[in-house]
Amino acid sequence: MLIGPGGAGKGTLAAELVAEDPTLWLSRSWTTRPPRPGEHERNSYEFVDRTTFTEAVERGEFFEWAEFLGNLMGTPIPRPPEGADVLLEIDVQGAEQVLAKRPDATVILLLPPSVEAQAARLAARGDDEEHIARRVEKGRQEVERGRQVATYTVVNDDLRQARGELAAIVDRTRTAALRAATPEDT
Ligand code: 5GP
After folding, report:
1. Alpha-carbon gap, residue 181 to 179, rounded angstroms
2. Quick one: pLDDT band at residue 41, thresholds 50, 70, 90?
């Protein structure tokens, strides 16, 4: 799981990671939030209304879901291709729910290098000032709670470097999982 405050660069890095690694599969979330410019074209989310979302919750179709700044966000039960590992880009409440089901899951907390850089990234994607202030404040809480559950913390100052660090964590996680699944030599 990739978690962290808005403006940390989770979406960009998640997309780059799966583009480089065909055995890593990124879940596509559902949201009741209205799309930002360009999001429809990028197929970022399944954009649905609240009724459609809550009906899917009642049918048990979500692996996890949470309310974030007034909008519902949720991960449908993952159906990755055979042999692929699952990457979720979600908020900290979602990460806590996933850990309750899968305590062996890895959580990476992605941080912006500074509040100024975070606010600039939020502005660049079209959020207005009030939204930016709310997201920065919400981000502070995400980081505080995120530190409790994070297996790794990565600062996204330089995008290439952060991508390298994330790819190394994915490798390390796979190696550890393989070791755990292989019986020791006698
Ligand atoms: P945004 O509005 O910036 O796209 O997303 C707001 C927050 O919701 C971000 O922290 C993002 O990671 C999180 N989020 C996106 N999809 C999901 C999801 O399926 N479940 C949960 N719990 N959070 C999500």
Report:
1. 5
2. confident
